[in-house]
Amino acid sequence: MTQPSSDFYRIKRLPPYVFAVVNEQKARDRAAGLDIIDLGMGNPDSPVAPHIVDKLRETLSQPKVDGYSVSRGIKGLRRAQAGYYQRRFGVELCPDKEVIVTIGSKEGLANLLSAITAPGDVIMVPNPSYPIHPYGSIIAGGSVWHIPNTTGPEFFEQLHRAIKHCKPKPIALIINYPCNPTAEVVDLAFYEQVVDICTMHGIWLISDIAYGEIYFGDTPPPSVLQVKGAKDIAIEFTTMSKTYSMAGWRVGFAAGNPHLVGALTRIKSYLDYGAFTPIQVAATAAINGSQQCVEDLRTLYRERRDVLVDGLHQAGWKVQSPEASMFVWAELPEAYRKVGSLAFAQALIQHAQVAVAPGIGFGEYGDSHVRIALVENKQRLRQAVRNIKQFLAMDSEEVLHGLAAKLS
Ligand SMILES: Cc1ncc(COP(=O)(O)O)c(C=O)c1O
What we know:
Helix content is 45%, strand content 13%. α5 (105-116) runs parallel beside α6 (132-139). The longest helix is centred in the C-terminal third of the chain and has 23 residues, at 292-314. The protein has a seven-stranded mixed β-sheet, sandwiched between helices. The protein is α/β, with parallel strands linked by helices. The relative contact order is 0.16. It has helices spanning 9-12, 19-31, 50-60, 75-89, 105-116, 132-139, 153-165, 188-201, 240-243, 258-271, 277-288, 292-314, 341-352, 378-392, 396-407, and strands at residues 37-38, 99-102, 122-127, 143-148, 172-176, 204-208, 234-239, 252-256, 327-331, 354-355, 357-358, 369-373.
């Protein structure tokens, strides 16, 4: 017998998820009876608002909802999303040509990248970033030019450098603000500059504003589509997962440039039949209905942020307080910088029973940080802070020595 090759071209290019290391340790410790406080994954923990669940129930009992749905999304939902862009950003969108529903935004991002990328095409992606941003391009057979994930002048310097030196010329740039993992936000002037550069050089712009409604100050984060002329080059992804805590329901959107929306529509028409119709109807009710649940969610995350950040500051860990997103992007305490984010995260779970996401999982430039998700209640966060305080008081050399012994 000759064994077929399992040296699969794409799989070889997808490293095992770094987060799996921490997840395995978490599972082992839990099996041993330890109470692990899980601030690793950005999985929203709040229940979906009752009026949205009621709409789902009501629609489930209607006739003819069990069959295939519509790949690009039911018209009512596309209209609702266009209405949201109009109300929130003052942006006009044609629900037929400029809006598409996706099965979560991750699916949409991956399929858009596969629709527009030819083998060897280069996509510019900030680093660190949400993994599907670089790996969507790699899965599609393209390659990635990493740009350090900053928002100051150096971002633009790096962007110009990439455009000038990269051969072949990059076909697209991905941006994500409020950012996962860095929690960084930008203003409209930033988007104007980015749109300007991409327009000048003929580069598609792919924006992901998954956390656009999870903000804590008075100024809501903008959309790139607010920039005049952005629709000539830009598409933007949003999601119900974070705004309405509907992560498991799998509903997201892409909106903007009709060629990009059209390309995504075409490829999806070969791949899926759309999200389950009752879920799309309930999502429509969520967008068109009262937004009090979104306001409540913002309050919830803001309070959790304050508990965590204030607590960590009192414990001597001076992390930056995020203005938006569900994350604290925390630079490693000085004593642990030399070992990097994975070892630090492993030590934290071992000694503080707190799981966080190591920054290296978001790209090599993320290794100086860990991402702490605000996905446990305030009481649990206070417990996490107490545990972390005790951990930080330990002798770091002893901790690292013990960790090395354990892993060897
Ligand atoms: C920046 C960013 N984009 C997209 C997604 C995917 O969201 P969805 O549930 O819509 O696929 C996430 C999920 O964590 C995210 O952090």
